[in-house]
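Action item from last week, closing it out:
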Amino acid sequence: MNESQEAYDRILRPIEDRMIQSIWRIVRNSQDAEDALQNALVTIWKRWDRVTQHPCPEALVLKMCADAAYDLTRRKVRDRKRNEPADAAEEPADKATSPTEGAINEELHFEVTTAIHRLPRQQAIAVLMRVIQGQSYQDVATALECSEATARTHVARGRTRLQTFLSHLDPTNAVRS
């Protein structure tokens, strides 16, 4: 077995499931998840030396996956705005939910994804890694190449801005108005 294969087995193989899960949580579409994973793997391959020398290569790889998913989703949002009205959902509706619930869930996911993309890049990545992927603050800090305190600040500020961006979705907000 060559050195590259050993590094792959040591770094990527143990987190393959987490890579696709982190992408899926962002894109929520099987075709998009496959595309984003391929984009992430190309980026990982191009920067393999950086990955293997990174103090926490798993966190860096998961960040690259989030970046790829984030880029793909941002591109889709931009295309959707350009081509409105939006086409019908690409994924078949879940049989356990009604068409109304499916439409509400899809619209909610679109609203949240759009709000995350409005965040500054560091905050968006920090929120995605910490809140969506459940990564530790240390892993977020390592991936963003900042201190743990700065990572906590990015997450806190990102959450605060998301609350502002998504306040129109809060039913208790409508009661107070």
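Closing note: The mean pLDDT is 83.
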